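Q: What structure does this chain adopt?
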Amino acid sequence: MGDNTAKNYIIACDLDGVLANTVKQTLRNIEEEKAIKKTNDDIKHYDLTIDLGLPQDYIMAAFRKAWREYEKIEPVDPNIPYILNKLREKSKIYIVTSSVGDDKEIIGWLKKNNIVYDKIIHVKSDNEKLDVEADVFIEDNPNLAVELKNAGKFVIMLKQPWNVEFGNNGIAFAMDWNELFNKINEKLS
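A:
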C-alpha cells in the first residue's frame, strides 16, 4: 500500500549557494587564473565584484567554467540528499534557479549528488522567481529574499558569509540544512 496523501506543499529551492557550492569552485577557478586566493568566508557581499575587485563578466565566466566542470562542484551540505528525500515525502521540490549552468549540467550535478526534485524552473533573472507559486522559498540572495517576503512569500535564507550582515528583516534564517529541515517542517505542519 502506497501513501496516497496528496503532495500539497511546494518547496522552491535555489541552486547556487543553497544546493551547489558553486562559489567555492568559482573562487578556485579565479585563483588558478588570477592568483587571487579567497574562500567562501571572504565573500561578504552577494555581488562578488565588491569582494574580488573583478568585472562582473569575468566572474560570470568563472561561474560558467565551474558549471562546465560540474562534477567538481561540492554540495553546500552533505545532508541535502537525505533531507530533500524526507521533505519530498510530503512536498514537491522545485529547483528554481537563474544559474549560468545549463539544464544538462544542472541535471547531471543533481543526479551525481543524489538530489531529488520534481521540477526544474530555470529563470532568466532572479525577479522571475516572484512569479513561482510555492509555499516555501529557500534562498541565499538577501536582496531577492526581501523581495520574495515583500511579495507575501515565505522565505528561509540559508546562512552564507554573503548574507550574514544583512540582518534578518523578518526573514527566517537557517544555519544549515538540518535547521532548514526543522523550520520547513514547522511551517508545513
